[in-house]
Amino acid sequence: MKSIILIAGSRLLVALLVVFSAYMLLRGHNQPGGGFIGGLVAATGFVIFAIACGTEDARRALRFKPTDIAAVGLGMALFAGIMAAIWSDAFFTGQWLFINATPEDKGIPLSSVLIFDVGVFLVVLGSVLSIVFALEEEV
Amino acid sequence: MLLLQALPAIGNGEVIRYVMPWVPSLGVNVSFVIDGLGLTFGLLITGIGTLVMLYSAKYLAGHPQQARFSLFLTSFMLAMLGLVLADNLLALFVFWELTTITSYLLIGFNHDSAKSRRSALQALLVTGAGALALLAGIILIGTVAGTFELSEIRAMPGVLTESALYLPILILVLLGAFTKSAQFPFHFWLPNAMAAPTPVSAYLHSATMVKAGIYLLARTHPSLAGTDVWLWTLTIAGAVTMVFASVMALRQTDLKQALAYTTLMALGALTLLLANSSGYAITAAVVFLVMHSFYKAALFLVVGILDHQTGTRETTKLFGLGRAMPITAFAAALAGLSMAGLPPFLGFMAKELSYAGGVEAVSSPWLVAVAFLIANALMFAIAAIVGYRPFFSKAGKPMKGISEAKWPMLAGPLVLALLGAFFGIFPMWLQGSLIHPTVDSILGSTADAKTLQLWAGFNLPLVLSLATFALGFVIYLFTAPLRATLVSLIDRSPNFDRGWDKFLAGVLASAKWQTRVIQTGQLRFYIMVTFITALAAMAVTMVVKQALVLPIIWTPVTLTDLLVFGLVIVGTGLAILTQSRITAIAGLGVVGIGIAMIFILYSAPDVAITQLLVETLIVVLFAAAALRLPALGAEPLRGRWLDAAVAVAMGATVTLILLMATTGPIDRSLSDFFEAASYPEAFGQNIVNVILVDFRALDTFGEIAVVLVAAIGIFALLRSKPGKDEA
Fold first, then answer.
1. At B132, is the pLDDT very low, low, confident or very high (cuts 50, 70, 90)?
2. Greatest CA span in chain B, whole angstroms?
3. Which of A19, B219, B645, B653 makes a 20 to 30 Å CA pair with B363?
4. How far is it, in rounded angstroms, from Cα B184 to Cα B173?
5. Phi then psi for B269, rounded to 5 degrees?
C-alpha cells in the first residue's frame, strides 16, 4: 500500500510524535506521561512511518536495530538501579542532583530516576518496533 | 598453603570461624569454619590438587583445550574447598552443586565422544537429583533447628534425632550423600565417570569429590547418628557397596576401571565405618580416608602415566615395565603396598583399625568383619594387579621402547606414595595434627580416639589381617579363572547402567505423551483452559470462604455513562458476529477505546493514555497478522455454545467480584502513603509515575525485562520458518 498522502502526512506525524514522546517522557514525573507512555507514543510514530513507507525506510530512520535499542534501555535501567550503590544506598534508591537550586526553587533536577525512565522508554520503543517490523516484513 | 598455618592451632583443639552475612533475613550466611575435619579435607584438596595440576600440565601438554581444562580444575578446587569449609548448610549446598557442575564439565571434557557426554550427563543427573533431596533435607533441618549454621546445630544435641521430622531429614540427607559418594544402588555413575581424563579421575573421582558424601556423613554424624536407622542404613549400604565393588573390581581388565571400583569399595568402607560411633570405627574412618586419598590418587596417576607412555591400560598387555620406568614402578609399588594393607604402611594401620572397629560394631560384628575381610582380600589382589604386575611380572612379554615419564608427571605419584609410607612409619605426626582433631569434630571429644600404631599386640585384628593376606594372595594367583567366572556371572545379572538408560527413555516418553495431551497448539484451547481454571478457583474460594454476598448498589447513571457503555457493548457484538477478521479487530479496538474513556471519566489519565496507545498498537499488530490468516469461516453455532458459556460465566464472575470488592471499605493506607510521600521523598507530583520509577522501580525493571524477552521471543518465532527446524 503506497499512498502519497499517507507518505507526506506520515513524515510530519512521525516528527511530531517523536518530539511529543520526548515531552511525555520528561514531564512524566509531575504530569500524566512517563517512560512507558512516551515509548508507546514514539513507537506509534515509527509504526505509522513503517505502514506508510515500508519497514526498510522505517528501519533506516530509526538508525539502530530495535532489539539493540531495547537492550540498551534495559541496561540503562539496570545502571540507574546500580548507581545507588555508589552512595551505599539500597538497589534502586533514587539519586538526585539539583543544579542551581535555591531554597524556593529546585532548579534543574537531574536524577537516576530519569535515567531509569529513559531506559523504560527505550525498552518499550525497541520491543514494540522489533515485533511490528518483524510482523510487517513477514507479510 | 595458607591452610598449613592452621595446623598447629587445630592440633590444639581450636576452631577457626569466619562469618559474612549473605541473606540475613533467611538466615543464610557465608560462614566458614576450620576444624579438624574441614582442615583434613582442605589439605587433601589443596595438596593433591597441586600435584594433579602439575601432572596434568604435562599429561595434556599440547591439547588444544588445555587452558579450559585448567580453568575447570581450578574452579572445582575452589568449590570443593568451599564445600568442606562452609559452616552454613545452604552455603555448603551451593558449593555442593558447584562441584557437581564442574565435575560434569570435567567428565565431559572430551566432548567429541558420545560416551563422555553420556557419562557426564549421567553423573550430573544422579548427583543433581541427590542434591535436590539434600536441599529439601537442609531446609527441614533449618526449620527444626531454627538455624542453618552447622556449628550451632552441633551445639544442640538431640535436636534432630528427637524431632518428629528425623526420618524424612535422614532419608533426604542420606540420598544426597549416597548419590554423591556413589553408594549402592546409585553406584553406577562413578565407573562411567572414568571417561574423564585421568588426572580428573584421580582428583575428583577418588580423592575429593566423591568424598563429599562421606564428608557430609561425617559432618552430620554428631547431629544425626546414634539411632538404629542411621546404624543399619549405613551399615547395609556400606557393606553392600564395599563387597559388590571389590568383586566388580576384580572383573575389570582395564586398570583404570579396576581402580574406579576399588574407589567405590573405599567409599563403601567409609560409610560402613561412619555407621558406628565407637572410637575405633571413627578413627579407622579418618585414617582410611587420608590414606585412601594418598594411595588411590597415586595409583590413578601411575595408571595415567602407563596410559600416556604405552598407550594402553589393559592389564593383559602390560608386563615387566619396571626396568624401563623405575621411578613409576617405585611409586606404584609403595602405593600398592599401602593399598594392600601391608606393614609398615598407613594402609596397614587403617586396616587394623577397621577390623577393630568392625569387631566391636553394634550392628553385627560378624557381618561387618566378614565384609571387611572379603573386601580387603580382594583389595590385596587388585593392589598386586595394579602396583606389581605391570612392572615386575614376567608372565608376559615386556613392551619395547617404553621410556620413563617426565618429572612433573612423576612428582604426584611419588610424593603421595612416599607420604603413605612416611606416615606409616611415623604415625604420630599425622595423629596429633589431623587425625585426632578430626575425630574430635565428629565425636565431639578426643577421649575415644585411638592411637595409631604398627604393632598393637597379638589380637583378633592381627589374625584377620593375616587371613586377609593369605586370601588375597590366593585370589591374585587365580585371577584369570576367577575373572572369567565373574564375567559370565555379571553378564547374566541385571545391569544398573542399562536400567538407567531405560529409566531415562521412560521419562522422555512420558514427557512426550504429556506434551501431546496438554499442548494442543490451539490458542483457543489454551484460553479456554486458563479461563475455566480461573473460574473454578474463584468459585471454590467463594464457596469455601462463604464470601458470596449479593451486593445491591444503585448509583444514578448519567447519559455519558450510557453512551460509553453502549459503545463498548456495540464493539463487543461486532467482534462476535462479524465474519471478517479486520472488522472483528476494529470491534475490539472500539471496546478498548470505550474502556479508555471510562478511565478518563473516572480521572485516571495515565492509565487512559496507556490504554489508548496500547489499543492502537494492538489493532495495528493484529491487522498486520490478520493479512496472513485465512478468512473467518461461518462457524456452526453449536461449536460456539461452550465458548459463549465460558465467556459469560467469566464476565459474570469478575463483575460479581468487583461489585463485592467495592461494597467493602477501601483500605486507603497505601494510597495515603504514596500521596504523602510522593513529592517530599521522590520529588514527583504524578503519583502513578513516581510509584513506577521510584518506589517500585524494581518491579518495573522486572516488567521491562519481561517486555524485552517477550519481544525477542516473538521476533524469533516470526523469523524461524515453520517446519524448517522444528525439533
1. very high
2. 110
3. B219
4. 15
5. -60, -40
Residues of B in contact with A139 (CB under 8 A): 624, 627-628
The H-assigned helical ranges of B14-86 are: 36-59, 66-85
**What is the 3-state secondary structure of B487-498?**
HHHHHHCCCHHH
ipTM of the complex: 0.82
Q: Are B660 and A87 in contact (CB under 8 A)?
A: no
CB B59 within 8 A of CB B199: yes
For the residues B161-171, what does the mean pLDDT come to? 85
Phi-psi region for residue B198, left (φ > 0), alpha (ψ -120 to 50) or beta?
A: alpha
Residue where the block lists cell 455513562: B561
Strand-pairing partners, residue B31, are: B19
Shortest CA gap B704–chain A (Å): 6
Mean pLDDT of B564-579: 85
For residues B28 and B147, what is the distance between their CA atoms, to the nearest angstrom?
A: 9
CA dihedral B414, B419, B420, B422 (to 10 degrees): 120
C-alpha cell of residue B538: 474463584
Burial class (CB in 10 A: 0-12, 13-18, 19+), B473: middle
Q: Give the Cα separation of B692 and B128 in Å (integer).
A: 40
* Most B-contacting residue of A27, A76, A123 (CB-CB within 10 A), to test interface: A123
Number of CB pairs < 8 Å for A and B? 137
Quote the pTM value.
0.69
Residue B447 has pLDDT above 70, yes or no: no
Cross-chain residue pair B621–A127, CB shorter than 8 Å: no
pLDDT of B688:
73
pLDDT value at position B160?
79
Q: Where are the alpha helices (DSSP H) in B578-668?
A: 581-601, 605-626, 641-663
Cross-chain Cβ contact B711/A117 below 8 Å: no
- Out of A96, A106, A139, name the one closest to residue B628 (CB): A139
Would you say B286 and B435 are in contact if contact means Cβ atoms under 8 Å apart? yes
On the question of pLDDT at B436 being above 60, the answer is yes
User: What residues of chain A lie within 8 A of the CB of B617, using their CB?
Assistant: 40, 43-44, 47, 128, 132
3-state helix, strand, coil in chain A (%, to 5): 70, 5, 20
**Using CA atoms, how far apart are residues B170 and B193, in angstroms rounded to an integer?**
27
CA-nearest residue to A132 within chain B is B621
Identify the residue whose cell numbers are 568451599: B82
CA pair distance A71, B705, nearest whole angstrom: 9
Beta strands in B157-297 (DSSP E): none
From CA A56, how far away is CA A76, in angstroms rounded?
27
Pairwise CA distance, residues A37 & A43, whole Å: 10
**B259 grid coordinates:** 581402580
CA dihedral (B404, B410, B413, B419) in degrees, to 10, reads 120
Measured between alpha carbons, how far is B86 from B79 in angstroms, rounded to an integer? 10
CA B23, B28, B33 angle in degrees (round to 5)?
130
Task: Check residue B28 and give its pLDDT.
Answer: 66
